[in-house]
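Fumarylpyruvate hydrolase structure dump, as promised
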Amino acid sequence: MTSYVFPPPQQPAVAVLGTSSLFPARRVYCVGRNYAAHAVEMGHDPNREPPFFFMKTPDALLPDGATFPYPTETSDVHHEIEMVVALEKGGRDVPEADALDLVFGYGVGIDFTRRDLQAEAKKLARPWEVGKAFDHAAPCGPLARAAEIGHPAKGAVTLDVNDERRQTGDLDQLIWTVPEMIAYLSRLFELAPGDLIFTGTPAGVGPVARGDRLHGRVEGVGELRVTVG
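structure tokens r here:
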């Protein structure tokens, strides 16, 4: 019988809209600069280039309605609203035409970023984990099942901070579509049930402060509310 030297951690999971079920999270992939306007505001070429990915840890997931503790060692934490794709099947070298068959559902997420630490890592040509993969850095609202809402390819993506609109975009502005992202990612990693993909953020990213109330929406998918603590 297998034993552990200490009790294993609880399985990170995301709620499923309208049910008491939980979606067990395996890996959290994030797509960088997937909206042209955001690429421009970050000082990069908005033209279509091969996508690139970074990762957050599954235990960084934070549920809807939770408090996001302002992290340490930073004075410049930014919000990035995104649609999240949840996979219930996996595979390698998935054809683009079959990619949506892997999808369980969709949610609304925020890619919190310690922008000052990320900028320093970029300048030194170092990995981004210190700016992206910190504790509680991946809030994600309940997942809407694709069997009920389909596979949204257009719809407003917005974020309000203290009832003031900060970010506005549309899913039809994604440089790389969801099937393209899944197919490309499956050539780099073997995908598996439980994988989550944060699909990129529209323009308007900016800093948050303690006490801020964030309200994110993806039309046809759902909402996410987070308070900065």
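The chain has a mean pLDDT of 95.
lmk if u need the other ones
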